[in-house]
Fold this sequence. Notes:
Elements: H1 2-74, E1 92-95, E2 98-101, H2 102-116, E3 127-132, E4 137-142, E5 151-153
Amino acid sequence: MANRRQAKKNAAAAVNKEAAKKEVKTTVAEETAEKVTAVEKVAEKAAEVKEAVKEKVAEVKETTKAAKAAKAETAEPKKTPGRKAAVKEEFVLEFAGKQITQEEIKKKVKENWTKVQKNKIKDIKTIKVFLQPENSCAYYTINDEGNDSYKIEL
């Protein structure tokens, strides 16, 4: 009989243990479901906040763009202090009833360099011109080289 009692106790304990396991599983499942629901609500709220932030950023960008446009329309041109307008310069050599400008002399030098000397304009690094109005000519050096053939008539 003692074995029967012991077997009944063991059986009852096993049933109670199984019931306890089922209760724990049910409780864990319910708690997990509650947590999942809470996380879903937080995710939903985060999505709403993200959308609100995007709208606010777009609004700020539009406002900034409008402000810049308005400022550009009303802004006066910037004046740099101490800077004057560029001086227009022109050099004219007059001699023996003739006139020649600096630009004309440069043009003739380059023309002589390419046509007479058979060189290319892209090879020019420096130009120096020596005027001799009494002889109605100019001598030039290009890239610090020159000779008697580097002469132009004025």
